[in-house]
Specification:
Photosystem reaction center subunit H (chains A, B), six-stranded mixed β-sheet, SH3 type barrels, PRC_barrel-like_sf (chains A, B), PRC-brl_dom (chains A, B), homodimer
Chain lengths: 115, 115
């Protein structure tokens, strides 16, 4: 199995900074969503604190869209600001209906990934 | 992809109760360890608060050893108390060296799983 520096407690992923490919600090990871049975990390929930002028909204982003960059010590997302502006998001005082398959599909479709 | 009730925020996994196959409540999940790059949940860190008479130690257990039981609303581990007593664990005020591949291998070997 893969062990070593690759592994980290999920609680320590939370708070990790997120950059775009230009090196701008967009925000940080607020939480991750995992599959209880298949043990896969499905989404990172990202908090873009005001950067987009949208307050404390959370963006769920497919895990596969994130690349960990050892040098920056954070994740890099290869998506544009415009993509983020129109992406699925929810207010920090609410919680999405993860039980609704259509919600997950909407996220995956938006970012063009499938599992 | 799998969506729906299967998905949950990692922060909400923490605190989920853990039972053995006899239905005894052993403790709860303290955290999960994920692979930063491969996006797999590797270990659940379990807190057996005093149940084994060993104080607040944490046991990292391979994720695949846990089965989620919808009826009980918690995880069931198919391991005996004796297995747990001798299993790798660490004091709650310390942190294992996840960077050391031998540590992960020791856990996997103990529970007889491989990735």
């Amino acid at each position: 199995m893969q062990v070593g520096a690759d592994n980290i407690e999920a609680s320590r992923v939370n708070g990790t900074r997120v950059y775009n490919t230009d090196g701008d600090n967009l925000g940080h990871i607020y939480d991750v969503v995992i599959g209880k049975r298949d043990g896969r990390v499905k989404y990172a929930i990202m908090s873009f604190g005001g950067f987009l002028g949208i307050g404390e909204d959370y963006h769920p982003i497919p895990w596969d869209v994130l690349k960990y960059d050892e040098r920056q010590g954070g994740y890099v997302v290869g998506i544009t600001i415009d993509q983020l502006k129109n992406a699925p998001r929810y207010a920090s005082d609410t919680s999405p209906d993860w039980v609704d398959p259509a919600y997950g599909k909407r996220i995956d479709d938006y970012y063009g990934v499938s599992y």
